[in-house]
Fold:
Amino acid sequence: TQQTYTTNTLQMGDVISCRVRGLSICDTAASGVTMTVWPVNVANVENATMWVNVYPNPVKDILQIDYSNISNAELELCDMAGRVLIQQPLGHSLDMKGLASGTYMLRIVGEGMSVVKMVSKE
Structure:
């Protein structure tokens, strides 16, 4: 009965379901989304002086990644459904040549931290 659903209790693998009903009882649609939850140690992130910048955005082929105060991190490029398309150690560039145009989530995960940047591919 609400337009927005907010919670801080989701766990990995939880399923959020949405049922939409029109004016008639026959006008019903249902959908389910399995949540991918990326835990973050908020205390560590708030006290850190780290930053991440990606460019150009939108990107044509090679995405440049600048960062500070991040070590021992992994990089994951995910589609909007949360599927990991590319996984590699964090570096300063990411080859996106073979990917379709669209919006992707770039996730950088390290010890006690997680950063997500939205990236558009031309």
